[in-house]
Amino acid sequence: MLKKFFMNVLSSFVGAWLAILLSALTFFILIVGIIGILISKEAEIPKDSVLRIELNGELLERETPLELSLSSLLAGELDQYQSVETLTAAIGEAKVNDRIKAIYLDCGALSSSPASVNAVRDALIEFKASGKKIFAYADTYSQASYFVATAADYLYLNPAGSVDLHGVGGQTLFLKDLFDKVGVQFQVVRVGEGKSAVEPYTEAHMSDYARRQTMEVLDTIWNQFSGELARSRKLKAGDIDSLINRDFISVRTAQFALDKKLVDGLKYRHEVEEMVSKACGQEETLENVATPQMAAMSNTKWSPVNNMLDNQIAVVYACGEIDGGFGGIDSQQTVKTILELAENDDVKGMVLRVNSPGGSAFGSEQIWEAVETFKKKNKPVAVSMGDYAASGGYYISCGADCIFADRFTVTGSIGIFGLIPNIQGLTQKLGMNVETVATNPDALFPTLFEPMTPAQTAAMQNMVNDGYELFVKRCAEGRKMKVSDIKAIADGRPISAPTALRLKLIDYIGSLEEAVNWTASQAKTGNDFHIGIYPQVDDTLGLLLGGGASPRLKSLMEGMSSDHVNSKILDALRTILGEDRIKALLPVSRVRI
Q1: How far is CA 426 from CA 431, 445, 451, in A?
Q2: 61: helix, coil or strand?
């Protein structure tokens, strides 16, 4: 019996150690695989290469670390989004790199906002000036990938494929009826009738004003978008709308798309790849392929190493919601970056690349002041607007010496609001009673558990009014306009780039590169300047093996923990009740194409 007991203990001990060793070995193999993926980015571009760009999935403004999860690691799948930053840098490199002979656009279900795809498309059009060719192919073109593909010299579609054209729009869930049922009320204080970001919480339907202002922006975007498609394919104005509204082109055959001149030919993937390989002097099999990451790393102007060089124009990315959490703009970090660049003698000027629907009014003011401090060093500042530079996004932009926007940028939305939840009805439905003990009547104001009094509402409105007046003042000073002229358009409505140009809220319709060149000319750097990219994006390998390894790996395990889910819910409530309750946020849903 004793012998059997020891044998069981020994077998359990050995089994446990074998499991530990097996787990360690698996983890080691995964890490080696990740390192291989990352190192492959920096491999030398072979001679007679093709830059292959896969236009599929989400297109973001900047590169992000590889998305890590237990399932993706175990399955050997590492999802990495494409970025405007990497694609445009890679296309710019391909234009001047003698080793890259052509670009092959492998198109699919690309999803993005209009300004992002337009930036990639403009880079491709610039690439064609080199005399090199662009080939595009898709099994099925999404509207976004098709728009980019129309810059190609040769545009092909699978004989069994289709072209999905449908227009532009966005959808918003209106939740008032749901909140009424559960006993939750949202109390609103705002300035600007067009500041309709609060409507999903307070209304059952979109207001007429919000619908009208949203359609004005969408119509402007679509008229430019469809007009460019028509010009590229040598179609008449209005043909694109007819194909969508009358012919339901998204569900028609490939032959129909060919008949309507949307594509140049119907070919299978291997046929197109044979064409591309032969055009580049390769054999029939497409072999020498450069990835966007590989090409971007080879780029001289936009290389990350330029952050350490002199005679530098700094490009500071401000992407996402301001102080909106992970993946957004951290105002403290952004301020720190800008102030450090202001003190850096190697930095001669700055371009603030803004792609933000807004967010915290307080955080916006801090970034605005940092930009002013940078300007006091007699260094020029330009803003380059991406998909959005609205509300708080415009707040941090308005002080720049010069503002550039993409023709599809949504900007303006000058106004602020406060949104204070009251869950008293919910607690009553659940049989909960909240008792308050405090030294002062308003000691706990605002609180989740009771509505604001008229005096409290008036105090909150005064705070919002003060914030609005400061926002308008910043805009007037930055744009050298009268406060009254800003107020005439500062009702919270989003504004398209062409309208913003007419209203003098921006200076030029132009790209990030044009903003950089303008800044360099103002800084008198000459043509021999470098471009520094800030802030640096954390690399996946560093997150795993560097100082961030433990939190990163811990997060993989936390995803399976109920405690982790509960903490996320508490974090959301804390955000709602956070100290900074005043928002400058875009009132429309994200526009998708």
Answers
A1: 9, 19, 12
A2: coil
Task: Output phi, psi for 254, to 5 deg.
Answer: -65, -40
pLDDT digits (tens, 9 = 90+) for 314-326: 999 999 999 877 6
179 pairs with which residues across the strands?
A: none
Closest CA to 60 of 118, 124, 112, 115: 112
Measured distance CA(5)–CA(1) in Å, rounded: 6
pTM, 2 dp = 0.82
pLDDT per position as a tens digit, 514-558:
999 999 999 999 888 999 999 986 544 444 444 443 344 444 444
Residue 249 and residue 261: Cα distance in Å, rounded?
12
Closest CA to 410 of 521, 494, 322, 509: 494
Residues contacting residue 227 through CB under 8 Å, at least 6 positions apart: 237
Cα–Cα distance measured from residue 426 to residue 438, given in angstroms and rounded to the nearest whole number: 23
210: its two tokens: 């919000």
- Paired with 318 in beta bridges are 354
Residues present in the chain in total: 593
Nearest to 254 by CA among 266, 264, 270, 244: 266
Per-residue model confidence as pLDDT tens digits over 93-133: 999 999 999 999 999 999 899 999 999 999 999 999 999 99
Across the 593 residues of the chain, what is the mean pLDDT of every consecutive 10-residue run?
A: 44 48 50 47 74 93 61 50 89 92 95 93 95 96 96 97 93 89 87 79 90 92 95 94 95 96 97 91 80 78 69 94 84 96 96 94 95 97 96 96 96 88 87 88 86 89 90 95 93 93 97 96 91 76 42 42 46 47 60 66
| Three-state DSSP class for residue 579 | coil
Compute the distance between CA of residue 212 and CA of residue 587 in angstroms, rounded to an integer: 13
Predicted pLDDT of residue 26:
52
- CB-based contact 425:185 (threshold 8 Å): yes
427, two tokens? 């607690």
Tell me the C-alpha distance between 342 and 347, whole Å: 7
Beta-carbon contacts of 7 under 8 Å, excluding residues fewer than 6 positions away, are: none
Per-residue exposure over 15-54, b if at least 16 CB sit within 10 Å of its own CB, e if not: eeeeeeeeeeeeeeebeeebeeebeeeeeebeebbbbbbe
Pair 54, 108: CB distance under 8 Å: yes
| Whether the Cβ atoms of residue 176 and residue 203 lie closer than 8 Å to each other | yes
Hey, is 484 helix, strand or coil? helix
One-character DSSP codes across 276-340: HHHHTT--SS---EE-HHHHHHH-STT-GGGGGSSSEEEEEEEESSBT-STTSB-HHHHHHHHHH
560 C-beta neighbours (distance < 10 Å), count: 9
DSSP one-letter string for 400-420: SSEEEE-TT-EEE---EEEEE
- Tally of CB atoms within 10 A around 559: 11
The residues, ordered by sequence, that sit 6+ positions from 28 with a Cβ below 8 Å of its Cβ are none
Query: Other C-beta atoms within 10 Å of 588: how many?
Result: 23
- For the chain, helix (H) and strand (E) counts, in that order, are 23, 19
Angle of helix 361-375 relative to helix 331-343, nearest 10 degrees? Answer: 0
Extended strands (E) in 424-557:
494-496, 508-509, 530-534
Nearest CA to 315 out of 358, 354, 345, 344 is that of 354
